[in-house]
Design brief:
The complex is a heterodimer of chains A (about 150) and B (about 500).
Chain A lengths: L11 H23 L8 H19 L1 H7 L2 H26 L21 H24 L7
Chain B lengths: L1 H19 L4 H25 L6 E5 L10 E5 H24 L6 H20 L3 H19 L5 H32 L4 H10 L5 H17 L8 H7 L2 H27 L4 H23 L4 H22 L2 H32 L15 H14 L6 H15 L3 H26 L14 H16 L6 H16 L3 H6 L10
Antiparallel strand pairs in B: 1-2
Helix pairs in contact in B: 1-2, 1-4, 2-3, 2-4, 3-4, 3-10, 3-13, 3-17, 4-5, 4-10, 5-6, 5-10, 6-8, 6-9, 8-10, 9-10, 9-12, 10-12, 10-13, 11-12, 11-16, 12-13, 12-15, 12-16, 13-14, 13-15, 13-17, 13-18, 14-16, 14-17, 15-16
The chains are: A mainly alpha (about 150), B mainly alpha (about 500).
Chain lengths: ~150, ~500
C-alpha cells in the first residue's frame, strides 16, 4: 500500500511488525464474535478487539495514514445501522412471540456454529456497534487539535 | 407490548436521527418531536388503562419468567411518573426546535435528548436492580454530554464535575447492588424484597442503605451532595436545564429512592429520619444560597435544591398526607421549574446574557416571557390559586400533624424566602430600571407556545385537588407508596419458583 506519510508514526521495525500483527488481531476479534455463543467472549469483547486492530494501525503509522483511508461518515452510519438492527431484532421477537427481544429462531444443535437462534446475529451487530463506536472515540480524540497559545 | 414502547421508540428515534438527519437538521427535530408525542400519548393510554389491569402490568422481556429475566413493571406510581417525564420532554423538545438554532450540531442535540429520555423511561419502568443501574447510566451519560453541549470552558468544567461526581456515586450504587446480589442471589427487586423479608434484617443491609442514600442522594441533589447541580443545570441549553431540573433529578433520585426504600425495603425508620434531616437541610441551604445569586439560571439551580427538599421531606414523613404532598410537589415542581428554566432560556436567547445586573425592564419587550415568568414565580412561591400553594400547604400540614413542628415551620418560612428571591428576579429582569442588555432578537413562536402551555398547566394542574378527581387518580398512587411492600405481594404471583427452564 502506498504510504503518503512515511515520516509519521513509529519506527520501521514497528511498522513492519504491525503489517503482520494487525491482521491477526482483526481475525482474532472476528473469531471471538463468531464463536461468541459457544465459548467465552461475544459481540462486545470481539468488537473491542476489532477496534483495537484499527487503533494499532493508527499508533504505528500515524493518524494521517489511517484518516486518508477510513471514511468517518461510513463508520458513523454503520454504527447507527447496527444499533437500529439490534432494536429491530427485539421488535421482531416482540411481533413473533409477544416478548421484546425473545429468541424467535430455532435453537439448533448444541455446540455447532449455526445454533442458539438469534444470538450469533446479535453478536455480529454488537461487534459492529462497539467496534465502530470505540474506534470513532479514538479517532475524534486523535484528530483533536488544541488551540494555539 | 405497551411497556416496551417507552424504551424502543426513543431509542430507535435516537439512532434514526444519527443515520438520516445529519445533513437535514429539521428532520432531526421532526423525528424527535414525533417520538416524544407518541410516547406522551402512550403514557396517557397506559395511565387510564391501568385500573382495568388490577393496578399492575408486568411485562417479561425475552420470553423467560422472572427472576431469570428483566421485567418491566407499570404500577400507579410509575405510570404517573411516565406522564410527568414525557409531558415535560415533549414541551422541551417543542421549545428546542427554534431555541437550538443558536447552536451547531442540532442532530447531536436531539439524538442525545432521545437517549436521555430512553434512560429515564427505563429507570421508571424497570423491576430489576441491575437494569435500573444500566438505564440510569444511559440517562446520565447523555446528560453529561448535553451539559457540555455549548463547549465553552465553563460548560466543560461543569460537565466534568458532574461526570466525576456522578461516576463515583454510580459506582457506590453498583457496589450496593452487588452486596444485595451476593446476599440474595437475585436481582429482581421484588424477589430481593421477598428474601429480605423472610430472612430477617442482616447487618449488611445498613451498608446498602448508606450506599444507596449517598448514590441516589447525589442524583437527587440533596444537600451534602448538591454541589454539582448549580454548575451543571445552568450550563446546559435551556430545554435541557428544564429536563434536568424538572424531571431527571426526580426520576433518578426521588423516584428511585422511593421505589427502593419504600417498596423493596419497607421504609425503615432510620432511612426516613436521615432523609428528613437531609431534606430539611436542603430546603434551608438551597433557599438561602439562591438569594445571593446574580446569574438567572444559577439562582434557579439553587432553587431546585431547595424545592427538592420539600419533595423529600414529604416522602420521609411516611404518612398518607406527607406522601400525597410529596407526589403533588414532585409533579407541580416539574411543571413550574421547567417553565422558569424555559423563561430564562428565552431571556438569554433574546438578550444574550443571563446576568441579572445587566438585565432590567424587559416586561415591555418580552411580554410573553415576562407574563409566564410571573405565573411561574407565583406558583413556586405558593400563592393561591396556583398549584404550588396546594402542595406546599399539604406538606406543611402533614409535618405538623406528624409532630415534626420544627420542619413544618422551616418549610413555611423558606416559602417566604422563595418568594423573596423570585421577586428579586422579577425586579432585576422584567421590571425595575432598564439595564445595559438590549433585546437583540424576538422570542420565536415555538418557544412562546411551550412557555404558554406550561404556564396554563401551572393553573390547570390544581384541578387534581378536586376531591372526586383526587380520589380516583391520586389516591391509588399514594396507596402504592403507602402500601410499602405490597408491591412485592403484587409481583410475587409472577415469580417462577421452579428450576431454570
Amino acid at each position: 500500500m502506498q504510504n503518503n506519510f512515511p515520516n509519521e508514526g513509529m519506527s520501521v521495525i514497528v511498522k513492519t511488525i504491525t503489517r503482520f500483527t494487525v491482521w491477526l488481531i482483526f481475525l482474532y476479534g472476528l473469531y471471538i464474535v463468531i464463536h461468541g455463543h459457544l465459548s467465552p467472549g461475544g459481540g462486545f469483547a470481539g468488537g473491542v478487539i476489532v477496534a483495537l486492530s484499527f487503533v494499532h494501525l493508527t499508533l504505528a503509522y500515524g493518524k494521517n495514514f489511517v484518516m486518508e483511508r477510513v471514511n468517518k461518515f461510513a463508520m458513523n452510519s454503520l454504527e447507527a445501522i447496527a444499533a437500529i438492527l439490534i432494536v429491530l431484532t427485539g421488535l421482531v421477537g416482540l411481533y413473533v412471540t409477544g416478548y421484546f427481544l425473545a429468541n424467535f429462531m430455532g435453537v439448533g444443535k448444541l455446540y455447532t456454529l449455526l445454533s442458539a437462534g438469534y444470538i450469533p446475529m446479535l453478536n455480529i451487530f454488537i461487534c459492529v456497534k462497539v467496534g465502530m463506536g470505540l474506534y470513532l472515540v479514538f479517532y475524534y480524540l486523535a484528530s483533536f487539535k488544541p488551540k494555539e497559545g | 407490548m405497551i411497556l416496551s414502547q417507552f424504551i424502543f421508540v426513543p431509542l430507535l428515534a435516537a439512532f434514526l436521527i444519527v443515520l438520516f438527519a445529519r445533513k437535514k437538521e429539521n428532520f432531526a427535530a421532526a423525528i424527535a418531536l414525533a417520538a416524544c408525542a407518541w410516547i406522551l400519548i402512550v403514557s396517557f393510554i397506559a395511565f387510564f388503562k391501568l385500573s382495568s389491569h388490577g393496578g399492575m402490568i408486568l411485562n417479561n422481556t425475552s420470553g423467560w419468567e422472572i427472576p431469570y429475566t428483566i421485567c418491566l413493571i407499570l404500577d400507579n406510581l410509575s405510570s404517573f411518573m411516565l406522564i410527568v417525564v414525557n409531558l415535560v420532554a415533549f414541551l422541551s423538545a417543542f421549545y428546542a426546535i427554534q431555541y437550538i438554532n443558536h447552536f451547531t450540531g442540532k442532530w447531536n442535540f436531539f439524538a442525545l435528548f432521545m437517549l436521555m429520555l430512553t434512560g429515564m423511561n427505563g429507570v421508571i419502568l424497570t423491576g430489576d436492580f441491575f437494569n435500573l443501574y444500566v438505564f440510569m447510566e444511559i440517562a446520565l451519560f447523555s446528560a453529561y454530554a448535553l451539559v457540555a453541549f455549548g463547549t465553552e470552558s465553563e460548560e466543560l468544567e461543569a460537565a466534568f464535575k458532574y461526570a466525576t461526581m456522578g461516576a463515583i456515586t454510580s459506582t457506590m450504587i453498583l457496589f450496593g447492588i452487588g452486596i444485595l446480589y451476593s446476599y440474595t442471589s437475585t436481582l429482581t427487586m421484588a424477589d430481593v424484597g421477598l428474601q429480605l423479608r423472610s430472612g430477617g434484617t442482616p447487618k449488611m443491609i445498613f451498608l446498602v442503605y448508606g450506599l444507596f442514600i449517598a448514590g441516589f442522594g447525589l442524583k437527587t441533589a440533596l444537600v451534602p451532595f448538591h454541589a454539582w447541580l448549580p454548575d451543571a443545570h445552568p450550563s446546559a441549553p435551556a430545554p435541557i436545564s428544564a429536563m434536568l431540573s424538572g424531571v431527571l433529578i426526580k426520576t433518578l433520585g426521588v423516584y428511585a429512592l422511593v421505589r427502593i426504600f419504600f417498596n423493596v425495603f419497607g421504609a425503615p425508620t432510620v432511612v426516613l429520619q436521615i432523609l428528613m434531616l437531609l431534606g430539611t437541610l436542603s430546603i434551608i441551604i438551597g433557599g438561602f444560597l439562591s438569594i445571593v445569586q446574580w446569574d438567572f439560571k444559577r439562582l434557579l439551580g439553587f432553587s431546585s435544591v431547595s424545592q427538592i427538599g420539600y419533595v423529600v421531606i414529604g416522602f420521609a414523613l411516611g404518612t398518607t398526607l406527607g406522601i400525597l404532598g410529596g407526589i403533588l410537589h414532585l409533579f407541580y415542581h416539574a411543571i413550574f421549574k421547567s417553565l422558569l428554566f424555559l423563561d430564562s432560556g428565552a431571556v438569554e436567547y433574546s438578550t444574550d446574557t443571563r446576568d441579572l445586573r445587566q438585565l432590567g425592564g424587559l416586561s415591555k419587550e418580552l411580554k410573553v416571557t415576562s407574563a409566564t415568568n410571573m405565573v411561574g414565580t407565583l406558583s413556586i412561591s405558593g400563592i393561591p390559586p396556583f398549584n404550588g400553594f396546594f402542595s406546599k400547604l399539604i406538606i406543611i400540614i402533614a409535618c405538623i400533624s406528624a409532630g415534626q413542628i420544627v420542619v413544618g415551620i422551616v418549610a413555611a418560612l423558606v416559602s417566604i424566602v422563595t418568594l423573596a428571591y423570585f421577586l428579586k428576579v422579577q425586579k432585576h429582569a422584567f421590571y425595575g430600571k432598564k439595564g445595559s442588555a438590549k433585546v437583540l432578537e424576538k422570542v420565536p413562536f415555538a418557544m412562546k407556545t411551550a412557555m404558554i402551555i406550561l404556564a396554563a398547566l401551572c393553573l390547570l394542574s390544581s384541578v387534581i385537588m378536586i376531591p372526586s378527581i383526587r380520589k380516583n387518580y391520586l389516591n391509588p398512587i399514594v396507596d402504592t407508596v403507602m402500601g410499602r411492600t405490597s408491591y412485592i405481594d403484587k409481583v410475587e404471583p409472577y415469580l417462577d419458583k421452579g428450576s431454570v427452564k
